[in-house]
Amino acid sequence: MKNYLFFKRPIYFLLLNFIIWNIAFIPFVPASVAPYVDETYSSKPDLYDALLNTFFPISFVILLNASGESGSIKNKLLPLLDDVLYNTITWVIPLIVSFSYGDLLAIKIFSIVNMCLHVICAATAIYRWEKIGTCKFNGYVRTIYMFLVAFPDIAIPTFWIVNITTRHTFDSINMMFLILFVFLLVSLISFFIINLFYINYKLASVFVVIYFYAPNIIQTLLIILNWPINFYFVKACVFILVLSLTRNVSYFTDKVPNEFLATSTTLTQASLSMYVRSQFSNEDQKEIIDEKIDEMKRSMDENDKNTDEIKISMDEKDKHMDEMKRLMMDEMKKSMDEMKRSMMDEMKNSINEMKKNS
C-alpha cells in the first residue's frame, strides 16, 4: 500500500525530494576524484599553444592573400603591421628581456637607444604619410633607408660580440651565435673592401638583403635560448618572428603595390626588392627571350615536320597517280591492241570471202 502511494505521488514531488536529500546529506559524504584526473596539470600552456597553432595558418592565409588593390584598407594596415613586427623583433623583445632579468644593463641601454632611433624613423615616415608609388628616393627616405640597412649590419653584430665576450659565457649556444655574429661582421668588412676594387651588383644585392634580415633573426633566436622568460614568451616570439618573415618574403615574391603606405620598414624593403629585381631583370629578360626563341624553333620544327608530312603525302599521291596512269595506259593499249587485232581479223575474213566469191 505504501509503495502504491509512493508511485502515485507527482513527479515534481519526487524530484524535489531527491534534490533536498542530496543537499542535506551529500556534504557528509567524503569527496573523491577519479583516478585518471591529473590535479597537477595546468591547461594554460597547452591552450595558449593550441591557440597559436590555430592562428598560424589563418594569419598566413590572410597575409599571403592580402590584395594591393587601390583604395584597399590593407594598403595602410599591412605596412603598419610590417613596421610593428620589425620593431618588435629589433628592440621590443630585447627590451622586455632586459627589464625581466636584473643583470642585463647593457642590453637595456642598447635596446633603449635602438628604440629611440627606430621610433624616430617610423614616426617620420608615418608623419609624411606618402605612398610607395609617389615616394622619391631622396631626403628623409634615403636617410631612413641607409640607417635601417646599416644598423643591423654593424650595430647588432658588434654589440652581441662585445656582450658575449665580456660576460664570458662561452657555452656551446653562445659560441655558436658568437661565430655567426663574427661571420656577419667580418663578411661585411670584407664585402666593403672587395667593392673598393671590384663591384658585382648582383652579388651585392643578395648580400644587402642578407645583412638586413639575418642579424635580427639571429638576435631573436639568441634571446629566446638564453633568456626564455616563460613558455608564453617563447611561443609569442616564435609567432612574431615567423609572421614577420612571411611578410618579408612577400616583398620579393610579389610586386609591391604603389598604393602601399610608405612606412620606414615598407619603403626600406620595397627599395631592397626593387634593387634586387633591377639586378636580375636582365637575366630574366634573357631567359624570356631564350624561351621565346626555343618556342619559335619548336614551332618551325613542327612546321617543317608538317611540311615533310605534306610532301610525303604528295609523293604518295603522285605515285598513286602515276600508277593509275600506267594502269590506264596499259588498259588503253591493251584495248587498242585488241581492237586492232579484231579489225585485222575482220578484214582478213572479208578478203577471204571476196576471194571465194570471185
TrEMBL record:
The keyword Transcription regulation does not apply. Keywords: Membrane, Transmembrane, Transmembrane helix. The keyword Transmembrane applies. It comes from Glomus cerebriforme. This is Transmembrane protein. The lineage of its organism: Eukaryota, Fungi, Fungi incertae sedis, Mucoromycota, Glomeromycotina. It comes from the Eukaryota. The chain crosses the membrane at residues 12-30, 50-68, 80-99, 105-127, 139-161, 173-199, 206-225, 231-249.
